Every structure is written in C-alpha cells, then in structure tokens.
Amino acid sequence: MRLITLVLATLLLLIQLPLWLGKGGWLRVGELENQVSLAQRKTVELKARNAKLDSEVHDLTNGTGAVEERARFELGMIKKNEIFIQILDANGQPNESATPLPPPKPDAKTTP
C-alpha cells in the first residue's frame, strides 16, 4: 500500500512539473507579463511623443503663431514697423533676455 502511494505521489509531481517549469508554465507567464508591461509603458511614451508631434504639425500647417515664433527665435526676423533692440554685455556678446516674450496673439479665424 505504501508503494502505491509513493508511485501515485511521484506521478502527480511528474504531471505538474510541466505546469510549473514547462513551456507554458507559471515562470514563462511571469516573463511574458513583464514584457507586456514594458511594451505598454513604451506605447504610452510613444503616444505622448506622437501627440506632441501632431500638435506641432497642426500648428505649423494651420496657424501662423508657430511659424512666426520660429522665424523670430531661429532666424532673428522681426515684423514690419518693429524696432529690434539688442543689449550687449561687456565682451560685446548679446545677453539673454531676462523677460519672456509675450505669447503670440491668436488668429481671428481660429478663435471660436
């Protein structure tokens, strides 16, 4: 009787071994869950990046504010009848502006 119990217990362990350590076992499920959570985090980051790029494309195609801002900061352009004042430091280098520029005025067409 004792031998039968021992054989049955061994068979039970052998049957459950693939469940815990096999190809579809709990360890593999844990690894796959980690991969899924990593992919979801990366997806969230990429969606935020895509939304930012989409917003920038929308601003550049539909509004003049973004184009005007880029022209001012990157190309140093000014509007007609504007006066440009540049303050130089002791070495003759331009200073950074201490006061931020006002935000661009919204277009009358895009304002609801």
UniProtKB/TrEMBL annotation:
Part of a complex composed of FtsB, FtsL and FtsQ. Residues 22-112 are periplasmic. Belongs to the FtsB family. NCBIfam families: PRK00888.1. Essential cell division protein. May link together the upstream cell division proteins, which are predominantly cytoplasmic, with the downstream cell division proteins, which are predominantly periplasmic. Residues 1-3 are cytoplasmic. It holds the Pfam family DivIC. GO terms for biological process: cell division. It is found in: Cell inner membrane. Residues 91-112 are annotated as: Disordered. It comes from the Bacteria. This is Cell division protein FtsB. InterPro entries: Cell_div_FtsB, FtsL/DivIC. Keywords: Cell cycle, Cell division, Cell inner membrane, Cell membrane, Membrane, Transmembrane, Transmembrane helix. The gene is ftsB. It is a single-pass type II membrane protein. HAMAP family: FtsB.
